[in-house]
Sequence to fold (1076 residues):
Amino acid sequence: MSLEAPHNLAFSLSDHLPILQVLIPFIAAPLAVVIGNRIIAWWLAFISSVISLLIATTLLGKVIDGSVISYQIGGWAPPLGIEYRVDSLSALILFLVTLVSTIILPYAYKSINFEIPKEQHTLFYAAYLLCLTGLLGVAVTGDAFNVFVFLEISSLSTYVLIAQGSYRDKRALTAAFDYLIMGTIGATFFVIGIGFLYMATGTLNMVDMSNLIKGQESLSTVRSGFVFIVIGIGLKLAIFPLHFWLPRAYTYAPSAITAFLAATATKVAVYMLLRFMFTIFHPNFLSKISIFEYIILPLAIMAMFSASVIAVFQSDFKKLLAYSSIAQIGYILLGIGLMSETSLTAAVIHIFNHGITKAVLFMGIGAYVLQGRGSFLSDLEGIGKVMPWTSAAIVVGFLSLIGVPGTVGFISKWFLVKSALEIGWWPVAIAIVLTSLLAVIYCWRVIETIYFKPLLSKKLTAETPISMLLPIWVGALACIYFGLNTEAIMTTSQMAAKSLYAGSFGSL
Amino acid sequence: MVHSLTTPTAFWFFYSVILLLALPSGKLRSSFLLMVPILAGIHLWNLPLGNLVQVKLFNFDLELMRVDKLSRIFGLIFCLAAFLGNLYAAHLRDTVQQVAALLYAGAAIGAVFAGDLITLFIYWEGTALASVFLIWARRTVASYHTGMRYLIIQIGSGVILLVGVALFFNETGSIRFELMTLTSLATWLIFLSFGIKCAFPLLHNWVQDSYPAATVTGTVILSAFTTKLAVYALARGFAGTEILIYIGAAMTLFPIFFAEIENDLRRVLAYSTNNQLGFMVVGIGIGTELSMNGAVSHAVAHILFKSLLFMSVGAVLFRTGTCKASELGGVYRTMPRTAIFCLIGAASISAFPLFSGFVTKSLILDAAAKGHYYIIWAILLFASAGVLSHSGIKIPYFTFFSHDSGLRPKEAPLHMQAAMGITAFLCIFIGCFPSTLYSLLPYPVEYQAYTTSHVVNQLQLLFFALLAFALLMRSGIHPPEIKAINLDSDWIYRRFLPSLIVKVKNLIDGFIFRIHRLIPLKLYSALRLIHILLGREGALARVLPVGSMVLWMVILLTITLVVSFIGF
Fold:
């Protein structure tokens, strides 16, 4: 840990970046409510999102070489005080979350006009900012209980945000309620797990915890704690049989929120899983506990297949994408479950890739919905002729989802297949290819509908407003850009995977 | 990541597509189409030799622009062919064909300059994808099916190439496109994929199937690139591979007979393409400096004279709507200039002295003789006579002379005449001043085409072949031009294999039927299970009450807890 910053020497602003990362959206949220003007609220949200993105980029630049930033809140040294720790993995997540947020906010401005009454907008942005705070906080903190706190901040605001969809469709309320119940149970499991670990170690600081757990692996307290944490996070993650809350939450939430959540919330949950599995529990422990081969891997592969098949049968474009998300999470879990450096790299890359891909797709379908169409495939027949730009962006998103070379989706699948072959598990590699074929099928169903069916009704004739189209295309171009210029993401991911696999928080 | 000294020539063509789409359809666009290959060609001419553009992608070093003497001459002739093709097509107002022609030429040129196998593969598929639109552009049902068959074969060749490249990389750890030996499965696969594009015997049907099916102008462009790209790839990768000599010899022989009896004149020319490719393949197979020079220069000459022949037949097709020998004849009265251009092309392909074929083909023949391949030499000689008969005489004779069909079409449009005129001039120019072409060849040339013995030999051959044709025509033994379909080996995959598949399917059906009766759980009940579980309202896709969701969670927690305690 020689790379840690010395204690209590935070002099300049740049040393405070880890806390500012969380603080800026956190302060902006009440500010938006106090000022009470929806336009100012949007600007507050947008500016704090942009600043967060700048901070995240700076942090990413600082830790890309493998170093770790440790920040002590109030100057209290860990393990007593709360510590924020940024390594390459958390910096990548911070970057993803803030990037997606910055892309989506301009989109949200127009899009929620159609979905939410104007007097609610300030509250909407406040909830959004709190959600952002929570997600960033989970990624930045190095304290186990602090993770729970931030998780709850983001979850509670998420429930509110999903329920906002009720102005368009009342089913959003039940979807949000179901998610509230399930999410709370998941969080409870999670905090029970942390409680077990606290019992065993007497500390909440992750690094400290990790050191103290060594040698106590056979304690049933530790193992139960591990299981509770995995299942608790698993719900947030929508691990395969715990996924039932997700399709409806995604379908009925406001479009911008769906895009934001699909791109970030589950990804942050994956981050938590990685962090707890690999940082607090040593990989040595993981190889002994046999959960990977008997629980995670089978569930991952089942998710890949069954969610893809379900997606094939869907008639609602949003639901189709939601199930495809569940399948994609299967890929990420597969990468984690294979437990090699390459497979972890694949998982980390896929977190990022799938994040921006799904953001594009959900923004695209949101644009369809707002232009007066429903999200049912039968409503979208021939819409490609009326909305060529939106549709083209959706096609780019699909290509990336399938994993066509030249898009981001290709790189992670490539690494995933590679990692499966490295350990000689070629049936897994075949499964990856087969499920990609399923993805081709459900993507093609949509493409066929929007391009090759005659335009059904003449309800609308306009392309998406430019302020919404631009974010969609920024995302689509990002899919291509990061697919061609693979250096940055790959270096960070490899660094992150390496340090995860070594079982430490950042430092090797 | 990118190390670049110049823009890859192929990109000139790709970029210009964007500009092209911005221009209004019309004269402006047509002249723009002419400018692109000229500018690209001039740019290429001035490039130094060397590895000019390197890109790093996923730990692979891609070389997009390997300019050496071998690739440069192919790049130049491709630019020239693109120019001539576009000039010939200047009347077109069809965006699809214009874009396809540009992309096709660009991909072919890109492939020629590819210094590694991955880049080669990408462009290899690129030529297939772009060129099929030249066939589909006819917009008939038949051409759609032909295009599909063409695409399947071309993409198939690309897939085989990809598998070969992957294996090759696995074995050697290198993706550089260099001379290979046929010692492993990898190189055999690469060889096979080259062979498909080069129309090796039994892999050749796509040429006869697709060339006559493309549009008037599309055929001209098609004939220039794909097969010659394959010749280049063979020359680069498999020079001196002995089996190529015998393959090439077979290629020169068998099309002669098909060409003699074929009625569709564009198909005759397609067969004669096979035959000419055979000469080049033999040259590559011999692998000496002389023979390689011969193969390359013959490829150059062939692009020119074959384009010229396709152009002249195409012009007749354009004016009369047919290119069947049985429906044409006597057209020279109203299309005299086209007839003359056709004769020049015919003289070139038959290797008359003072025409381009003579100075290039004799290099290969001499190389065969010098390498002591006497039987091969004799076959090539016989094939040369055959060329004269089916391409040199049959094409011009049945199109422009022969019995009068009564057709009085207008002379070809001016731009077509210009394209044919330039090509004809080049054919004669190369024939009279071969040193210009020789100086561009990969190896130094010390060769005199015009020695007394060469000229006399060739003239003897040609005159006896002419005499034979005249006698055959007089005596009525020459196969008459009749409407008929000739069976070639493509019967195997167009008739025999489908019927075989139907038989096998019936067999399997019967088998499955029996299984159905034997096993109570039928196939569709498995599908129904999938539907029950995963269908739109399937068990795993339904809206669950919260209680059930929690139940799932508890079940999973329990199982995981149990499993976690097993491990210790």
About this structure: Residues 13-502 of chain A form one domain. Chain A touches chain B through 43 residues (CB under 8 Å). The first helix of chain A runs from residue 17 to 35.
